[in-house]
Structure formats: structure tokens, C-alpha cells
Amino acid sequence: MKNTKKMQCLLLAGVIASAGAMMAGCSSSSSNVSITSTEIVGEVTAVDGDEITVTVGSLSSGMGAGQGGEAPSGEVPEDSKDSSEEQSSEDKSSESSGSTEDSSSTDSSTDETSSTDSSKTAKTMSDTKEEASEETESDKSTSTSESEGGQEPQGEAPEGGEGAAGSQTLIESDTSMTFTISDESVLEDDASMDDITEGTVVDITIDGSGNIESVTILTDVQVSSSSSNQEQGESTSSTDVSYSGVTEYTSDTQVSDESYTSTGTDEEAIWVSEGANVSLSNITVDRTSSDSTGGDNSSFYGVGAAILNTQGNLFLSNASITSDSAGGAGVFSYDSGVTYVADSTITTQQDTSGGIHVAGGAALYAWDLSVETNGESAAAIRSDRGGGTMVVDGGTYTSNGTGSPAVYCTADITINDAKLTATGSEAVCIEGLNSLRLFDTTLTGNMPDDEQNDNTWTVILYQSMSGDSEVGNSDFEMVGGTINSENGGLFYTTNTESTILLSDVDINYSDDNDFFLQVTGNTNERGWGTEGENGANCTFTADDQQMQGKIIYDSISTLDFYMTNGSSLTGCFVDDETYAGDGGDGYCNVYISEDSTWTVTADSEVDDLYNAGTITDEDGNTVSIVGEDGTVYVEGDSSYTITVGSYSTDDKTSNAQEVPSYSDYEVDKPSELE
């Protein structure tokens, strides 16, 4: 059924970002399936025997990645970073995906157990992290890393040493790594250690055990410090960031019926800091600046926001907030800031200007807001480097810009009884080790087709490798409510581990519904891992869920697909090797409970099929189930056949994901907001 090839696990050097920020950790692997590969490009700053110290960077060639982190859908803003640096500003990819907010997106696995009784059981991310954290010995060489300056790499390392083509620029970060090259056979093109000196630019590939596979010396590469990007609004670390609030609150304050105005470059209308407890009610805030630059300082740290809370407790109610400034978020909570906002209206006009926004480990809780964003890479509900916590109850949240999903998630986000709409992007982008839970919510996405995307989707779970989200399990859970998909397929996951749960969700499919779920690698047009090795590991659970469409997977990915509690699927399972390179040891296992049904619409291929339910075609005919070895498990009268690696009528759905409850995440509305 599939070509097999031993795939390698990635070890991505962990680099600590500023306080509260996240660490880029190890990619996960399942069985022998590789999620992504690791390549480090940088300038050699010291050579000591067989040890070299490299300042990590990214090559400025390729398509733009977003600043600020949104989705990859649609066009990439002109000021976006190179995709080899980061995939999109907000997605730093999706605001990723074809639209992801990749500022962490364009704006696209960890605790997943992927339980199965077969030998193909996926490792959890925590297992992989423990393995990757152990220093290993090898006949070749080992690598260790040290972080300087407390910052994650700016962008991602290009793949395959392709940067050797002439006249490229290496954009350096503040992160250095030390490598021990104990075996010169890893040096490519007959090079020796004598050829590596201070100032040499190298491309280093690392295998799953942390060993150096190859070192390529790159020529015709100019080196540029990341500080040279300051004019474009990019920052090197939080220590380089300064705030300038027109009104600054550093002590306990209560204010009502006030108006605040900000017109300066990269300043905040209101800044709360130094542990102050601040209550603001019935206020008007106008943040307008044509000179502000936006970029990473805005997306990562909140520079230029209409309201910024970095170290206080902010209670905001009945406010009217407008922002017409690049990178000027409506309400931004950063670092140790805890923000509560209710019954307010927020409107932003420019690129990378989220509606409500958290980063750096902060928290933001919202009730009954009306939020609208209009720029590129500007999600209505947005998070970025360092993540944080958001709980949103009620309200409407609309993103109108290209690459601006309604929700760009690099944090832990819970939303209840809200209306989320993206008019020019996918509806949701989740990147890396982060979670989004939706309860009784209406979710609408309208991502445009774009030739730089492998497909078009409504919800994406992925890892852009931009450094803005820790590598790990992306988690999407939706209970009740409605999904409106206005273009393309529904769920797409690539270059990450992921869990998806749907429970009693009404789904309105687009006219060109290409797939219900796609779990595959990608062409790396946006820098999401290495082509042929950037598959996905997905556990999908349907609970009391009606579904229709194709389920697409490949051999460099793993899929455990559970149907429980009266769920039904009208569709087929397709092994599509388009993005799988030489293939891998992945699988697709399907588990059907006794009260669930699969209506088959075309010939299908799965590995392990556990069917305690009902399988027929659309005319009610029994579908033949035949083993790869020719064994006939079920002889049917349908024209369709399901080819399997193994077949059982046992109910194996006990390992399906449990359905969450909003009460487990709900936050009481503070009395200060009443």
C-alpha cells in the first residue's frame, strides 16, 4: 500500500525567549515517521579544535513570512519576512497557512497518545522531548546549544543547503549554538576543518538522535545582524523594546468617562505597568499614526497598541477603541499582564493589528465584545510569541484582511457562544504546542485559493518553524455550534502533531469541498519543514458528529480516526503520496463504534480497521473489505472495496478523546466590570 523508508526524527535546539516566552523544543515523531527535519544556518563566530560556535540566522531568499504571526492564506504582505525566515508575519504562517498568522504565522505534538493496539502507536511529544533532551554519542558528531540574549531564532533555517546559491543575505539572530564535529566525514564537498574559520557561513543538518549528518559551507552569502531590521519594525529581543504610553498607569486607579488619543510613532494610548490595578469604564480610545512600523515589536511585545497591559491588572468595560496604526492592536496583554475586558467595541484598520491580543505568557479574559480588524495578518483574536491564556465569552469577532483568520492561536484559547468570521482567510490557524476550544460558537472562513498553497482549507493545524511557537501538539476542539466553510476543504494538518475533536457540530461545506480532513506533508513552499519529511501525526475524534467528504493521508503521516456516539461519515479514505517524497512508515487506522456508520463513496485504503458499527455504500449495499494479502474479510455486493492491512469487528473506540466542557475553563466576570 505504501512505500517505506526509515525516516529521521528532528532535534530542534531549544532556545529560550524572553520571560514568559516559549522554547522551541523538539519535534515529535511517531514510530519511524518524521514530523520535520532540523537544519541550522549561521555564521561561525568561534573555532576551538573540533568545536565551532555558530550564530543562528536565516537566509533572505524565498517567499515572505509574516511578521506578527498570522495565516498563510492569500497574499503575503509586502513587509512580511522571507519565508525562509518565517512563513508569514502572522504565521508566522497562517495568519499561517495559506493564511496562517505566523508572526508567528501568516497571518499555522505533544500530549497526544494516539492510542492504538498496533505496533504503529505514536509516541507522545513528551516522550520525544525526553529522548531529544538526552545527549547522544555517535560515530559522527554531536551538537549542544546555548542561548544568548534570551531570544528565539529570527525565522527558520532554510532546507537542504539551498542557500548556497549566490548573493543571499544571512539575517542573524541573538542565538548561538555550539557544535562538536568529531568526524570530518560530515563535511560536504571535500571540505575540512581547516576550511571553517570565523566568518564562515555553514548549513548544518542534524538527525533524530541529535547527531550532525552534514555540514555544508555556504559561499556568496552576506551577513546582516538582526538589528539591521529595526527600521522595518522587527525586534531582536524584549530587552530592546521600549514603551511610550501617552497615559501610563503605574499605581491603582479608577477612571470613567475619559477620552484618550495617541498619534505618535509606535506609542501606546494607554499603558498599564508595575503591578497597578486599573479600572477603566465608559472610555473612548483613538490610536492613529501613519508613521508606525508595526512588525515584531508590535506583534511580540505590544508596542504601539491602543491599550497595552504589561504588568498590571486591567479591568476595562464599555469602551470604544479604534486603531489606525500599523501593528496597533486594540487591547494587548503581555508578560505578567492580566486583562479583563467586557461590553466594548474594538476596531483596527492596519496590518498586524489584532483586535484582542496576548503574548509573552499574559492572560486576557473577554465578555461580549464587538471586534473588527481590516488589515493583513490581523486576527480578531490573536496571540503571538510566548503565548498565554485567553477565555472569550460571547460577542462577535470579524477579520477582513488577507491572511487574517478570525483566531490565530499560539496560546491556550477558549471561546464560548461567540460569532467568529474571517472574510478573506481561513477561519482558524493553530500553530505548534497550543490549543483552541470552541463551545456553541459559529465559525466562518473564506480562504482564497492561492498558488503558493498546496490546497485551501478552513481550519489549519501546523508548525511553520518560524520560532514563534514551541514544536508540539496542536489541539482543536469544538463542541456544538456551526462551521461555515465558504471555500476549499475543511481541516488541514501538516508538519505537526495534532488532535481534533468535533462533537455535535453543524457543518456547512463549500461548493468545492476538496476534503473533510487532510493529514499530509507539504511542498515546503512556505518553509513548513522539509519536503518529503514534513507529514503530520493526527488523532481525530468524532462524537455524535455527522461528516462528509474525503479523508486524505500519506505515508509520512499518521492518522487515528475515531467515530463514536452515533457519528456518521459519508466519504472515503485516500492514501495520496503527492507530498510524501520517498514514502515512510505512516498509517491510517479507523475505529468505528457499534452505533456509528460509514457510508462509503469510493474505493478506500486504511491500515487497521476496527469496525463494530455499520459500513455500506450510499445505496445501502455491503462494501467488500479485503486485506492487502488478498484475504476477504467481508464479501459485499457494492461496487466499492475497502483495502485494509488488518480487520476486526472489536469496538476499539475507548481511546477516543473525551469531550470537554466549557465549565472547566469558564472565568467568572469580575465585579469591576459590572
Explain what the structure shows.
Helix content is 2%, strand content 41%. The protein has 674 residues and is mostly beta strands. The chain has a domain at 29-223. The strands form six sheets. The chain has a 23-stranded parallel β-sheet that branches. It has a 15-stranded parallel β-sheet with strand order 14-17-20-23-26-28-30-33-36-39-42-44-46-48-51. The chain starts with 28 loop residues before the first strand and ends in a 26-residue tail after the last strand.
Radius of gyration: 24 Å
Number of strands: 55
- Structural class of the helices, strands and pairings? mainly beta
In percent, how much strand structure appears in the residues?
A: 35-45%
Overall geometric form: flat
Number of helices: 2
- Sheet having the most strands: 23 strands, parallel
Averaging pLDDT over every residue, what do you get?
80
How far apart, in Å, are the first and last alpha carbons? 61 Å
Helix content: under 10%
Q: Residue ranges: pLDDT <50 for 5 or more in a row?
A: 1-37, 60-69, 74-94, 96-167, 225-236
